[in-house]
Design a protein that fits this description.
Structural class: alpha/beta
Largest sheet: 4 strands, mixed
Radius of gyration: 15 Å
Strand order of the largest sheet: 1-2-4-3
Number of helices: 5
Helix content: 40-55%
Strand content: 15-25%
Length: about 150
């Protein structure tokens, strides 16, 4: 079972949400769908646009904020016990949810699942990879009664 560490960093708006439960739901859905068994840890940092912008600029060379940043640590057989880190930007997720006519919770759950899938190796660079990842996200979200996030776009 993947261990989850959650933190709120410089963004009090997250305190209105049960981030521990949200993280557990997202990780459990991905684990069960893949029978992914790992004793590794995921660190999920619920933060603000400024922090995500800074990380995106410094580590990805993109001078802007985004809804989530995923830093996957390669499983190279070492004793590294961390699978990866996720950083979520509250205001980006909030703005996107409003623009797309979704609740904040539903959009955030989609973004969390998306990030966890990245940590276990999914990507969406190629069209076929994107289709596979989106299909799985739709399937997993349906298990928690969240409708297809792509049909609302």
């Amino acid at each position: 079972m993947i261990k989850i560490e959650t933190n709120i960093f410089e963004e009090n708006k997250w305190k209105d949400f049960d981030i521990d439960n949200m993280a557990k739901i997202a990780v459990d859905l991905v684990e069960k769908s893949h029978e992914f068994n790992s004793d590794k840890e995921i660190s999920i940092v619920f933060t603000n646009n400024h922090k995500v912008h800074e990380l995106n600029r410094d580590y990805r060379g993109k001078d802007k904020s985004t809804n989530i940043l995923t830093f996957a640590f390669n499983d190279d057989g070492s004793d590294n016990y961390i699978l990866g880190e996720l950083f979520l930007a509250f205001d980006v997720i909030d703005v996107e949810a409003n623009e797309q006519g979704k609740t904040f919770y539903n959009h955030c759950m989609h973004i969390l699942i998306h990030g966890v899938l990245h940590l276990i190796g999914y990507d969406h660079i190629e069209d076929d990879e994107a289709e596979d990842m989106e299909s799985l996200e739709i399937e997993l979200l349906s298990k928690i009664n969240i409708e297809n996030p792509y049909k609302l776009l």
